[in-house]
Design a protein that fits this description.
The protein is an alpha/beta fold and 375 residues long. The protein contains 15 helices and 11 strands. The strands form 3 sheets. Strands 5-6-7-8-9 form a 5-stranded parallel β-sheet. Strands 1-10-11 form a 3-stranded antiparallel β-sheet. The chain is globular, with a radius of gyration of 19 Å.
């Protein structure tokens, strides 16, 4: 058994469904899943119900975490996870009017995003990025242009053709990224592309970084491990937004992580079973991943691609810190560290996850890496 000790890992992309859908995930169950997954901090997405577009809703989430830990001090001694809420770019996440970014930043927003929705209006996006730049804040974008996306649910692959499923073109991602990069050039605002999924999208981000633009991007474990060519059946546990790419996309994402172009983030997206049992076309997007992310990214990047443990870890702790607000980053000064054990291979058992949801395709996968047991 070999042990590695790193600064606390951060997942900058999780959905806890609080407020909104407590049967899918509560703040408490999400924090428990993050702790068991080895994370020191998580950034929650604002696509709650209602959307997190006000200081009151930022404070609500922080208070919910405080209440959870306050009622269970002994259970979580030494293993608390920092909850850092992100906030909406636009009011209600509907893309029409920029939210009160100044008040949201003062309340402690980690960054701004309309995750799950793309800010289609060029003028709204430019205003948001100019205001965010003045605040020293990052804009994080869900790069799927609805005009290109239309009714697509899956990338072109054998399953899509067999089941006659509407396909999501690569252009849904690349058109969105190109527009965002053009606004980044004009405003100088930090831009982060969430859950990138295509080789072409990676190329745009790589070129922007070489140009000197303040641009980062993230890759999820599922886009690094899975491929649309390997989807076994009409199983919505393989449906996510953006969709799984093909083998070439997966290889390019791995190459970009190894180069330091991309960081990691899970896009942990819990759903009740009823919303994921309707097949590809009708089911909700997303899978849970907090409790499998560290082992699976180790498999993909350290074991398969030869990345050093230290460089792999930086994609979980150092790079994510770069997109956080100063207030959010300050909260990490006292964060727990992440300790990794590498030894005998263990099987991922989704039924034993702390998350309330089970929408996950990782059951039965194995890894020699796991977060050290909590104190």
């Amino acid at each position: 058994m070999k042990t590695y000790d790193f600064p606390g890992f951060i997942d900058v992309h999780v959905h806890f469904r609080d407020p909104g859908v407590p049967e899918a995930e509560t703040t408490g169950s999400g924090l428990a899943a993050a702790a068991r997954g080895g994370f020191a901090a998580v950034v929650t997405m604002p696509n709650t119900t209602p959307a997190c577009d006000s200081p009151e809703l930022i404070r609500y989430q922080v208070e919910r975490a405080r209440e959870f830990y306050g009622s269970r001090v002994q259970d979580f001694k030494g293993s608390r996870v920092q909850l850092l809420p992100s906030a909406c770019i636009t009011k209600g996440r509907i893309g029409h009017e920029v939210a009160d970014l100044e008040a949201l930043a003062e309340a402690g927003a980690a960054f701004f995003t309309d995750d799950g929705s793309y800010v289609s209006d060029d003028h709204v996006m430019e205003e948001a990025m100019r205001r965010a730049a003045k605040l020293g804040m990052c804009i994080c974008e869900h790069a799927m242009d609805p005009n290109e996306l239309k009714d697509g649910v899956i990338r072109d692959c054998d399953l899509a053709r067999r089941l006659h499923l509407p396909v999501i073109p690569v252009s849904a991602e690349t058109v969105a990224i190109r527009r965002d990069l053009s606004v980044c050039r004009v405003t100088g605002c930090r831009l982060h592309i969430q859950h990138i999924s295509t080789a072409e999208g990676v190329g745009l981000v790589r070129a922007a970084q070489k140009e000197g633009l303040p641009v980062t991007a993230e890759a999820t474990p599922h886009h690094l491990v899975l491929s649309c060519e390997e989807i076994p059946a009409n199983d919505a546990n393989y449906k996510m937004a953006p969709p799984l790419g093909n083998d070439e996309d997966r290889a390019e994402l791995r190459r970009a992580v190894k180069e330091g172009v991309l960081m990691f983030a899970t896009d942990h997206a819990p759903h009740p079973a009823a919303k994921k049992s309707l097949g590809f076309e009708a089911s909700a997007n997303g899978i849970i991943g907090l409790e499998a992310a560290i082992p699976l990214t180790w498999n993909a990047m350290v074991e398969d691609e030869g990345m050093t443990p230290e460089a792999w870890a930086e994609a979980w702790w150092k790079m994510p810190r770069s997109i956080l607000s100063p207030l959010a980053a300050k909260k990490l000064e006292s964060a727990r560290r992440t300790t990794i054990e590498v030894g005998a291979r263990r099987t991922i058992e989704v039924a034993k996850f702390a998350s309330l949801s089970r929408n996950c395709p990782y059951n039965g996968m194995e890894s020699a890496c796991r977060p050290a047991p909590l104190p």
